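Trying the structure run again after the queue cleared.
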Amino acid sequence: MDETAVPKSTAKATSTDVNAIYHDVSPTLIYGSKVFGVVTCLMVIIAFIICLVTGAKNNTFYLMATNLLISTFVGAVVTWWYRKGDLASDKIWFIILVCAVIVFQCITTEIYVFNVQYVHNDIPTPAPPRINTTAHHNMTTRHMMQQDVTTVPSF
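Done. Tokens:
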């Protein structure tokens, strides 16, 4: 063995390969998921505020706001697991899926809040129209009125 040879452990690279990939997941996918996460957060904030504002008219909107917060908490936990390393790096699709479900929830919440029909109890409703008849209605003759006139009742 040649004494002048440099051991491999102390050899230094003199040039870097510009085509080398030093990441597990594409940076474009990471950037896209971050943008989608920001859009999801904005939609949650908007839907949450809308639910709180219109909650004075209908108390179920407060439950919808709480449901949005719980779903957002689930998304935050999944993202935290990904950042911590408990979720594998190739499972970024799971974060995108959770964000898509939350976006769908925000859209349906906003549609429901804006299209709900309010019933005004302040306006009295008229009584149903009364049908004037000459027949006497009581429990004993009601069944006889529904029979054909030609049939004879049997006792």
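Residues 24-115 form one domain. Worth checking whether this holds up in the mutant runs.
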